[in-house]
Amino acid sequence: MSSRWLMTTMLAMALILVGCGGGGGEGEADQAATGDQAATGEPGTDRYTVRGTVAKLPQETGDTNLYIRHAPIPDYKNADGEVVGMAAMTMPFPVAEGVSIAELEPGDPVEFTFTMRWKPSGHYEIVEITELPGGTEIDFDGAGHDHSHGDDHDHSH
Ligand SMILES: [Cu+2]
Predict the structure, then answer these.
(1) Domain-embedded: residue 113
(2) Residue 147 lies in a domain
(3) Ligand 1: distance of its center to the CA of 128 in Å?
(4) Which pTM was predicted?
(5) 139 to 69, 70, 144, 145, 150: CA distances (angstroms)
(6) pLDDT tens for each residue of 71-118
(7) What is the per-residue pLDDT across 42-62, written as a single tens digit (0 to 9) for each?
(8) Alpha carbon of 77 to ligand 1 centroid (Å)
């Protein structure tokens, strides 16, 4: 199981690196490259690229966050740098300065990258977001294949 996690993590990292492609993320690429020796060093800024759908725009909620229903994030790390994963959910995401969300509408499928920094205090924000072609299906129950997980799925519909 742990080797499976490792593979998932490495795969996700590869995807992130591809996803960041040439964008030259400030040193984070380096960190990801050394990070595949697993959770050794202190956690810095983690970077995740995830798909989801736009749930609510800031103008609907009156706060500055973009609400996104995101797919599971199997490589999500906690404050100790342990891979704990994050289930699919709808949650608010702060949006970094310079990232335009002007063209997004609720229901739009998107792929986005957010950074997660735990120290000195937890902060995360979207640093990149791209609208996917209309009709793109987002895999909300399991990033790919692992249906054997036995989590309580919520059968909300
Ligand atoms: Cu979440």
Answers:
(1) yes
(2) no
(3) 16
(4) 0.65
(5) 11, 9, 7, 10, 17
(6) 999 999 999 999 999 999 999 999 999 999 999 999 999 999 999 999
(7) 457 999 999 999 999 999 999
(8) 12
